[in-house]
Amino acid sequence: MKTLARLPHRLAALLVAGTLGSCAPATGVAAEEPAARNVIFINGDGMGAAHREAARLYHLGQGGRLAMDRLPYSGQLTTSPKDPVSEITDSAAGATAWATGRRTYNGAISVDTARRPLPTLGAQAKAAGRATGLVTTAQVTDASPAAFYANAVDRDAQDDIARQYLEASKPDVILGGGEDWWLPKGTPGAYPDKPAADRTEASRGTEGNLITRARSAGYQYVSTPAQLAAAGPGRLLGLFANEEMFQQRAEGRGDVYQPVVSLPTMTGKALDVLSADPDGFFLFVEEEAVDEFAHQNNARRVLQAMWQLDRTVAVARAYADTHPDTLVVVAGDHETGGLSVEAVDPKDESGAGTSAEDGPLPVKNTKLRFTMDWTTTEHTGQDVPVTAVGPQADRFTGKHPNTHVYDVLAPILTE
Ligand SMILES: [Zn+2]
């Protein structure tokens, strides 16, 4: 390698630029990194390193790179909760660590181990004058989004969480599933009770008609793709399913991943609305189907959901490319399924009995095949990858406890 001194000046400057990031090539001085004004935090629920790799091989092939893996900074997060009986986290404790910087028991929504409410990132960002929002393919009141905008000793209190959204944290954009928790028994809403796909779904809220209350509080309420597309500026509530926006089942047992509105589309709309705020915004985005179908050891649906998640990351990245004061972070709250990417070899099973193996699955653009091997239908304690781009994204390199997310985001969002 020629020493820098002997390289043509422009090439030397570019090499320096490469190492110093976005510096003006001629001067060699690093351009001032803009302060982060906006944060887009994306959760692939249940997504571990193997989920990323399986999606890469299946959708892009050996030479491909997912949008989430193209983000320039990467690290790992540990996910231990502070639970009296379990070392393995659930999504409630996982998201509480992100949203409050505190580890707590499984099932807790941003309360500490003594069940005391903790300040959340969503409420703090709002108090600092930012616009805030959440987008998910789960119920909008499910554990992960709820931890950023509510406090509850039990994650199942989804109607109370919805009430808190309207009365306390007031996110400007709320898009996803979960209509059943906003309406009282006997008021079916836009999505009928007891549908053929899942007879257990039905309106079950105990806080009255929260959709009517949301409208009186100034929210536009939408329930179809056309209404969402037509929605104007200002506060927006969109509920597109009774519960989750998919049917989480084992393969061939009524498993469906066909959200009424796709996650990339909901995210694009949320960005349109939130970016109108001159003070900046905080947006939480989640693909819940990775976790739910991993619980079913359903590889094909996991791969489908991973692709929608990666298209969503591409939407967020494109936004950050034109708004350099935007930090985008992509992580999983825990790994689900004990997934590994393996060769096609039925004899390679170790231990008694056989674990669920899905495949053979094609490696895109090759004749090669791989299998997705599951060791459990539950969450595991594996580290999860985190990738990021934008101001302060470099703080996600290295290995950290999941509470580190709060340590990086809170100073930015409360600024
Ligand atoms: Zn789960």
UniProtKB/TrEMBL annotation:
PANTHER family: ALKALINE PHOSPHATASE. Residues 185-206, 343-363 are annotated as: Disordered. Residues 195-204 have a biased composition (Basic and acidic residues). Belongs to the alkaline phosphatase family. It comes from Actinoplanes flavus. Residues 1-26 form the signal peptide. CDD domains: ALP. It comes from the Bacteria. Keywords: Hydrolase, Magnesium, Metal-binding, Phosphoprotein, Signal, Zinc. Gene3D superfamilies: Alkaline Phosphatase, subunit A. This is Alkaline phosphatase. It holds the Pfam family Alk_phosphatase. Its cofactor is Zn(2+); Mg(2+).
